[in-house]
Amino acid sequence: MPSEPKGRAGSLLVDNIGELVTNEAGAGEGGPLGLRRRVALLVEAGEVVWVGPAADAPAADRRIDADGAAVLPGFVDSHAHLVFAGDRGTEFAARMAGQPYTGGGIRTTVGATRSATDGQLRATVRRLHDEALRQGTTTIEIKSGYGLTVADEARSVRIAAEVTEETTFLGAHVVPTEYADRPDEYVGLVCGPMLAAAAPYARWIDVFCERGAFDADHARAILTCGQAAGLGVRVHANQLGPGPGVRLGVELGAASVDHCTHLDDADVDALAASEGSTVATLLPGAEFSTRSPYPDARRLLDAGVTVALATDCNPGSSYTSSMPFCVALAVREMRMTPAEAVWAATAGGARALRRTDVGVLRPGARADLMILDAPSHLHLAYRPGVPLIRQVLRNGVPR
Ligand SMILES: [Zn+2]
Known about the structure:
Elements: E1 12-21, E2 35-44, E3 47-53, E4 62-65, E5 70-73, E6 75-77, H1 89-96, H2 106-115, H3 118-134, E7 137-140, E8 142-143, H4 150-160, E9 167-172, H5 183-198, E10 204-209, H6 216-228, E11 232-237, H7 245-251, E12 256-259, H8 265-273, E13 279-282, H9 284-290, H10 297-302, E14 307-309, H11 323-334, H12 338-352, E15 369-372, H13 379-382, E16 389-394, E17 397-398
Parallel strand pairs: 1-4, 1-5, 6-7, 8-9, 9-10, 10-11, 11-12, 12-13, 13-14
Antiparallel strand pairs: 1-2, 2-3, 5-15, 15-16, 16-17
The protein binds zinc ion (ZN).
Zinc ion (ZN) binds next to loops.
């Protein structure tokens, strides 16, 4: 607007914020959400540089009027499988008609993914990445895991790295059919040439530690090889039944153990004793889409465990890219408060990725944020299924 005074070059003021979720406990009301009212936020060079009362807002080159709406940090989706081909809608329909989920359908996607061109995989990753961004996700972790050959795993993480820095090598998603009677050999392949080919594009290594996938010995071997190659650890753990995944993850210093649907007291104690170092990432879209019992979020929160929410976006067991949907599920089905769910979907996801620059809105943080079509963060759970994300900024740039 020409009548406004010029601020520092390239600055952007988000003005008239009715409710700002800072995720800075102590910065305001609302406990860990650190809510501030009637504030403005100044962005320069992709970073938040000032937050203060709207009445004191400095001049800026450009201005966005939030018009009294709520502004939140962008969602941090710390668990997604976007590199795949094919569609499993028919399997979903069969499951809704009563067939159980076993994880075996992963092999269907592996076949389609191996047959796909790089261009087809890239188009799917970009489509889902953009779909997530429109729903407020400004940081997303993307896993490989549907290639399961050296070449297909390497290209999967390479294509993921084109859209995010949070890339994960999941060669140990399932033992592919051709190695069904030689799982030890497959683990050797994952730890050897597959890891060597994928590691240059990956920040993390992950294993599906579950009956029917990888047992504790195999998971430990793969994760320690990944650590030796400089990758951080995450684990798919305790999704389909009780098992060793959570405790193994904590023992190896995993940033996150994901799913946590079937936990015993020792699992919860181990997570609590990690004092937030290992986050429990809950993926309620998977329970929703497989009609399974939800994880006991209250038990984890009451024990002092740090909890994150993520989509698990994948074509088989959770084909949603919507973090607002996961927030609504967490509140309605897992008895998290709206504040706990919003924190888990933003700051919690950042903890699960060991990031301090996202999931918060304070000077020095990345200017990744969303403006809601609503006066409060509460509406994300209160108005489920409604497109409430009015505008998204990533690195200070309106998307
Ligand atoms: Zn997953």
